[in-house]
Structures are given as structure tokens and as C-alpha cells.
Input
Amino acid sequence: MSFASLNLISPLLRALEAAGHENPTPVQASAIPAMLAGRDVMASAQTGTGKTAAFLLPTLQRLEERPAQAGRGPRALVLTPTRELATQVKEAAELYGKELRHLRIGAIVGGVPYPAQQKLLQRPLDILVATPGRFLDHMERGRIDFARLEVVILDEADRMLDMGFLADVERIMAAMPATRQTVMFSATFEGSIATLAAKLLKNPERIRVAATEANNAKIAQQVHYVSDVAQKKAMLLALLKEGPVGQAIVFTGTKHGADRLATAIGHSGHSAAALHGDMRQGARNRTLAQFRAGAVRVLVATDVAARGIDVAAISHVFNYDLPRSVEDYVHRIGRTGRAGQSGSAISFATRDERPALKRIERFTGQQIPALAVAGFPLIEAPADNERRAPAGRGRPPRFGERAGAGRPRSGQGADSRFARRPAGGDRQGRGRA
Ligand code: AMP
Output
């Protein structure tokens, strides 16, 4: 299937060609015709599936038609959970809309001064990308004119609810014209998301995309069991030093932990920076720009701050601390393996984190192979709440030898660059599945 067969207009086809997108992804193939037909859409598709273009392309096409009404205020509103995602959606709209004339795109996010945003809202806008808190703030001061509003898109709606934005989203949506087209993208449509969707969407086209980042064959997942947190740090530094790591994101569970670890990585000679929600927006933007430019090699981040980062040079994602939710695991590992590149997702797990790892394996339907790291004793997957002693036979196992979390499914194996198997097979060190 081609983009042309989806009846997209030629300025969009030219922009897609320039972006190097040859064929629509499954979510694009389903969502674009439905949205072009004016239908409401609820799509369960995660980042990495091409969801952003899936809702932007038909929206841009709709905006090519003259507005029914003159005046100010946005014609399309995209709500995103985080500032970073808002920035990325805005950049994607600029990319796909670059052949369209007079397209005005703006963003309204928290953490930046108000005056420029007030000015933006006084002008006619085609697409406004916003985070709920700041948007509501402007809305309640009467600064947003909804008279021209035609399309509302809730991107990563589950995440918005996780972050406590349900009441804000409901208040925003209650102010929108009833004639609008409403589109919701979410990783899941369970629980409160289903209730919200039922309230907001009219006879929606339902789209489910099976391919998620957890099933992205280009992302090789592996886990290293560690005895304690100190060993995590030592292993991470060893991998950064010895392994074929290009640019990397290291995820920590706390903001404080991100700061401390970034400093430690910096001290060991790698350019590293922290990225988390306690930083001012200006500092976050600068850090991200440095990371994009390659001046920072290792970004140490918390989940919310790093969500949506799209940098093709990220070869590795490290889960220094395992995430609290399984969805976060999927979002984290999807920061690598982008734009057709392959990537590695490496988790460190203490004994206490084994249950979290099991939940991730159940959620993604995959066993994550456990590997050893050269210079460290192999710790096998603890079973039945018991950590097994390091493998005792022969020499200590090396980088890439298996420690017993089962065989990877095809395409899901350990990154061959990390998992060099010594001549003579991999029997040594293989434990129970
Ligand atoms: P998203 O799921 O929107 O976060 O997009 C993930 C990545 O896929 C982005 O880097 C897009 O530029 C890229 N992408 C989106 N659509 C396509 C396509 N049809 N072909 C190739 N790459 C795409």
C-alpha cells in the first residue's frame, strides 16, 4: 500500500517522500482513511508505530480546506502529556506540513513564560499542540477562542490520566464545540481510559495495532542480574567503556538518582547529563539539544522527562532501575531501534526487582535473556525467591553468555555486538529457563 492510495494530497506526499517514509505503517493505513472521512477514532497504538503521522496527516489535509469561520484560535488541538512530546508533535507537524502554504503551528506548554503564549493565542492558528495544565490555565483566563476548532486529538491519553490530568482533560473537552472531530490515541483502552473514550468519542472507528515496541525485532532486549546497586553502577560503567555503545539513555527511578548517576558517569570520562522534571524547561531544552547534537553521549533520565525522545543515534537504553509500570518499560525501550536502526535495551535487576521483570515478561509475552558481563560474576535468574550462586564450573562466563532466562524468540535475541558467544558453544552458564 502506498500513501498515494490513501488519497493524501500531493504536498503531503512530497513531504512524506522527503521524510523518507515510503509506505504507511498499519496504524496509518487504518487511521488516515477514517480521519479523512471525518470519523472519530480511538486507536491503541504506542509510540514507535507511526501514530503521530497517523493523526497529523489527515489533520493537515483537512486544514488545507478553507476554515468555515474566520477569526483567531486554533483549528486543530493536540493534547499531549509532556512538554517533550508536545515539542515532537509540533516538529512532526512542521515536517509533514512543510509543503503546505500558510500553515501556522504553535505550542503551549508549562514551564515557559506566558507573554509569548498569550501573543500566540491572539493569532489565528492551524494546529495548537499543548499540555493540559498550561492549556487549561489560558482557557480559564478566557484567552483561547474555540470558535474555529474542528479537530481535537488526545495523544498518549493513558499517560495523561496516569499523570493526573483526567479532571483537566474533562474540563478542556467540555469547552470544545460539539461539532468537533475527536481522536484518541492510547497504549491501552482499559479502565478509566475506556470511560473517558465513551464520553468523548462519537461512534468511533476502533483501531488496534499489534506491533508495539516490545515486539520490535530491531530492539534486542537483555537483562543482567546484579547482587546490589553498587554492582549496577560498576556494570553500567563497564558497558559504557567496553561495549559498542553509541548514544544511550539510562533510566533511573528518581530525579535525585538521575543527577547522581549522571555525575558518576561524567566522572568516569563520558559526556553525560541528567534530564528530569525538577529541571527548568530551559535547562531541559538545552540538555535535549546537546543530546540530539551528539555533544552529550549519555542521558540519564526519568520516565516522564524522556518520554517521546526520538533520536535515531540512540543505540542503547539502559534500565538502571526497572520502571514501576510495564507500559513504561515499553516506552523506554522504544527510545532505541528507531528510524529503522537496531538497538539494545539492557536492564539491570537486583533480586528485589525480579518480580517487576516477571511482570514485564508477562506483559510483552517475551522472556528477556539474561547475560553475563565480562569481569563480573554471573548471577542467574533467581527462582522461587532464591538467588542462585554464580555458575561455578570452569572459568567465569563472559559477556554474552546466557544465564538462564530462557531462549529469546526469533528476532529478539541479545544484541550480537554484546552477546558475542565464545567458540565452543554457550552451554556453560546456561541455567534454568
Ligand atoms: P511515532 O510512533 O509517531 O513516535 O513514530 C515513530 C517513528 O517512525 C518516527 O521517527 C517517525 O519519523 C517514523 N515514521 C512514522 N511513519 C513512518 C513511515 N510510514 N515509514 C517510516 N517511518 C515512519
Summary: The longest helix spans residues 83-96.
